């Protein structure tokens, strides 16, 4: 075999090896390219999902913000609407302040009738247009109820005069006092319950018994209209040895 035949044989023997190397390189390149596309396709939907979730979160956050702003605005508007009502109510209540007991302000001008009872030596003046009913226990006066017969009242005001046992007196039940020549009066500020206003005066005396006088009227305005006359009845109230 000559030299030219050996060269030709060497070229023929090297072709399969070179083809194998090229084939492996092509397959490896295709593998890398496939992996790149798979990774890209996997990440793309994920990114899109994240973007959608972010957009949804921002949308919800904005919605909540709008709702909160609307709620805050409604609350402020409601408060602004209620404030004038509260102020008006306060003004109305402040204009209905009860009178403090002052004998010089007692109104006796309309007290044209006189009630007199001998067993307790009691005497008191009461308004025109009023009537009374007294109650006796064991032949002695126990209580007297005075009330208005006027039809201008849905529920007429009335005054209740009651004889009291001295041993039942408790000064701690009262907050104010008024000292006079004949008695010491204990009383509280008017009390209001279910639209009914009342005020009680307890007369601590030097006699065998004490007395109390109670005014009851429906409504604060009606009570205030009659309160000075009630003070007038207190001023005209006489009992026991005062009559002699």
Number of helices: 2
Please write the string of helix (H) and strand (E) elements: HEEEEEEEEEEH
Number of domains: 2
Radius of gyration: 51 Å
Helix content: 40-55%
What would the average pLDDT be, to the nearest integer? Answer: 75
Shape, principal axes of CA atoms: rod-shaped
Any guess at the CATH architecture of the largest domain?
3-Layer(aba) Sandwich
Q: Can you offer a commentary on this structure?
A:
The protein is α+β, with helices and mostly antiparallel strands. The protein has two domains: 1-95; 105-243, Protein Transport Mog1p, Chain A, CATH 3.40.1000. Helix content is 45%, strand content 26%. It has helices at 3-94, 220-236, and strands spanning 113-117, 122-126, 130-137, 140-148, 158-164, 176-179, 184-187, 191-193, 196-204, 210-218. The strands form two sheets. Strands 3, 4, 5, 6, 7, 8, 9 and 10 form an eight-stranded antiparallel sheet that branches. A hairpin with a 4-residue loop joins strand 6 (176-179) and strand 7. The chain is rod-shaped, with a radius of gyration of 51 Å.
């Amino acid at each position: 075999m000559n030299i030219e035949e050996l060269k030709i044989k060497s070229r023929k023997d090297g072709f399969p090896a070179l083809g194998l190397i090229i084939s492996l390189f092509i397959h490896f390149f295709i593998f890398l390219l496939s992996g790149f596309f798979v990774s890209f396709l996997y990440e793309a939907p994920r990114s899109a999902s994240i973007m959608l979730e972010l957009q949804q979160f921002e949308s919800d956050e904005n919605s909540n913000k709008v709702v909160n702003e609307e709620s805050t605005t409604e609350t402020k508007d409601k408060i602004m609407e209620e404030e004038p009502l509260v102020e008006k109510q306060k003004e109305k209540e402040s204009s209905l302040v009860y009178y403090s007991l002052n004998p010089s302000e007692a109104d006796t001008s309309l007290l044209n009738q006189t009630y007199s009872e001998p067993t307790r030596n009691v005497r008191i003046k009461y308004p025109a247009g009023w009537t009374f009913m007294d109650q006796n226990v064991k032949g002695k006066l126990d209580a007297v109820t005075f009330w208005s017969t006027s039809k201008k009242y849905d529920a007429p005001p009335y005054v209740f005069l009651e004889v009291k046992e001295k041993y039942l007196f408790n000064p701690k039940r009262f907050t104010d006092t008024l000292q006079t020549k004949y008695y010491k009066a204990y009383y509280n500020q008017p009390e209001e319950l279910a639209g009914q206003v009342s005020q009680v005066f307890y007369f601590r005396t030097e006699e065998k018994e004490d007395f109390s006088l109670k005014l009851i009227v429906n409504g604060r305005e009606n009570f205030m209209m009659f309160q000075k006359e009630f003070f007038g009845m207190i001023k005209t109230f006489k009992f026991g040895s005062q009559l002699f």
